[in-house]
Design a protein that fits this description.
Strand order of the largest sheet: 2-1-3
Number of helices: 10
Order of helices and strands: HHEEHHHHEHEHEHH
Radius of gyration: 16 Å
Length: 199
């Protein structure tokens, strides 16, 4: 199991210092939650239902001095085993294109944060019960699905507002997903994707 501090440090290194404390909290949360769904609990994190979404308090206190600024990369590289690294990279890569604000507002629409009393612990059981039924869960265990199903973020939820079912885009691979996002702004992501599908 990876310590929460090593996991946070690895995510900071992975984003090459282009990450604020708020975004770190949200990426850490999603890495932890999806590792539970993948039946590969990665870390000893404990998340609380704070105003801006789930927060790992120890990590919050370690990096709070940076406020809205980016966290500098520590020179000491964290050594993780390949299975842990693959899972962390997959989840982090899936969510890193979205802003801290998008990720925070997404957690506000999800049951684990909504159903937990303010400032209390969001339980592992609550996370698994919710996330195992989300489309992104079909990606686990890694390699089981021949396609890549994008995470259901605030962007996809806003697109799905008038639909009976939540629409989550599916790609040939995570690389196709990342390439698509890189060439499109997140504000028009869903509309452009649908136009491309219909053309």
């Amino acid at each position: 199991m990876v310590s929460k501090y090593d996991l946070a440090s690895y995510i900071i290194q992975k984003l090459n210092g282009e990450i604020t404390p708020l975004k770190l909290q949200k990426l850490l949360y999603y890495v932890y939650a999806w590792s539970l769904v993948a039946n590969h609990k990665l870390s000893d994190c404990t998340f609380y239902a704070w105003k801006l979404g789930p927060v790992e308090q120890d990590i919050y206190h370690k990096y709070k001095e940076y406020k809205q600024s980016t966290i500098p990369v520590c020179s000491e590289k964290k050594s993780l085993n390949e299975l842990d690294k693959q899972l962390i990279d997959f989840i982090t890569d899936s969510y890193k294109p979205y802003s801290a604000f998008d990720l925070s507002t997404t957690t506000h629409t999800e049951k684990p944060w909504k159903k937990t009393t303010k400032d209390l612990v969001i339980t592992d059981e609550l996370m698994v019960a919710f996330y195992k039924n989300e489309p992104f869960a079909k990606n686990f265990p890694l390699g089981i699905n021949k396609t890549y199903i994008a995470p259901n973020t605030n962007s996809t939820k806003s697109f799905s507002f008038d639909m009976n079912e939540v629409y989550v885009p599916e790609f040939n691979s995570i690389d196709d997903y990342l390439a698509f996002i890189e060439t499109h702004s997140s504000s028009i992501l869903m509309n452009e994707f649908i136009e491309n599908l219909n053309s």
